[in-house]
Amino acid sequence: MGQCWYKSVIGGVFMEFNDLKELIELLKESDITELVVEKDGEKIRLRRDKIFAHIDQQAVYHHPVVHQQKQSDAPAAEAEAVSATTITITSPIVGTFYRSASPDSDPFIEVGSRVKKGQTLCIIEAMKLMNEIESEYEGVVTKLLVENGHAVEYGEPLFLIEPA
Amino acid sequence: MCAACGDLAEDTVKSLISSDALIGNSIELYSTAASTNDICLNLCRNQMPEGAVVIADAQTEGRGRLGRKWISPPEQNIYMSILLRPDMHPKSASVITLLASIACIKAIKLILPNLEAHIKWPNDIMIGHKKAGGILTESRIEGTKVSCTIVGIGLNVNMPEQLLPRETIIPATSILAETETALNRSELAAAIIKETEECYLLLKNKGSKAVIDIWLSMSKMIGSQITVTSNEDIISGIAEGLDEDGMLIVRDQIGLLKTIISGDVRIVSHG
């Protein structure tokens, strides 16, 4: 997926988001894949499919989560490939991930880059707000986990850093 | 730094805003700056408190989204950056980009109440179908804290029609080109500063929804047929509204609602 990121796949009429969230929660807690609600001549259809995962993520988005977490919180597959001290840098927001300030400029970091505290690691854009993500650690970048221009979700792992 | 560049004068701007104002508690005017956002970013690094304002008569490296060049000749326009330190989670800070566009529209309408100025999501300053101003907001994020947010405003004020940039995604215009009225830039800059403060305090005291409600009243695009382009993705549909964070909700051609986080929006036809 490119820069546009869709968090809802709700067909039919527009309604208040709080109401929609309640319906989404209902659907999530059940085994059903489709829910149709009719009210006052209006009809809402909710369907679980591939994109629905983003709605699930949006619900998580409202809960406080530590931005840069230790390896023990990273996906299990990564845990096997990296050392116990490796730090996973995660996204603090939903947005579009950029490795450089502009398409023509060099990436902020590469695998092997030595980073300092306060150094810009990447930019995540949301609504034309360019969020420069600063490193809270000193160390060496060992893995890049997201491609330039891709959408990232809240808490999504972005980089692995081996502390210096 | 300089004291005055034609109609743009530091003393005049200061005299038009309250002495105890939050935004504009410090104002620096430059005859030429590489980028007012870059100067403001240095103020951020030097622990300058929020509310500092940097204005330039001209920029040599004015920029927009994704490093696009913002044409910034002298003696014509407003290039201004405001340093904020919002005490909020990065997720909620995006609404600041809407806030700045509201401030610009309100300031313009104070001086020219009948001008057809409106906002295109998220924060393009439009006059009719043309773009008169843009806002580039840059934040620095430490962990889950916003250390500073720089709101950069580029507004084409007294730019003659023949000097307007031609190779733009959206046709460019200026207030002068649309109204044949030359405005005093100090007066307009002061009005933007005052309106930014009012809107920022509204955000702090009442939350995002209050800001989004004002934004909706100043945008003509809700109900319009639009296309959103970003990388290889193009979405066509009807602009339905904004969500609680200010993100754009679009109903696509098969009736699905999608939330747009970033991209270039083009209004195909007004609703």
What does this structure look like?
The complex is a heterodimer of chains A (164) and B (271). Chain A has 164 residues and is an alpha+beta fold. Chain A is built from three helices and twelve strands; from the N terminus they run βαββαβαββββββββ. Chain A has helices spanning 17-28, 52-61, 76-81; strands at 11-12, 34-39, 42-47, 68-70, 87-90, 95-98, 114-115, 120-126, 129-134, 139-144, 151-152, 157-163. In chain A, strands 4-5-12-10-7 form a five-stranded antiparallel β-sheet, with no helix packed on it. Chain A has a four-stranded antiparallel β-sheet with strand order 9-8-6-11, with no helix packed on it. Chain A is elongated and about 60 Å long. Chain A starts with 10 loop residues before the first strand and ends with a strand. In chain A, 31% of the residues are buried. Chain B is α+β, with helices and mostly antiparallel strands and 271 residues long. In chain B, strands 3-4-5-9-8-7-6 form a seven-stranded mixed β-sheet, sandwiched between helices. Chain B has a five-stranded antiparallel β-sheet with strand order 13-12-11-10-14, with no helix packed on it. Chain B has a two-stranded antiparallel ribbon with strand order 1-2. In chain B, β7 and β8 form a beta hairpin. Chain B is globular. In chain B, 51% of the residues are buried. At the A-B interface, β1, β6, β8 and β9 of A face α3, β8, β11 and β13 of B. β9 of chain A pairs parallel with β8 of chain B, so a sheet runs across the interface.
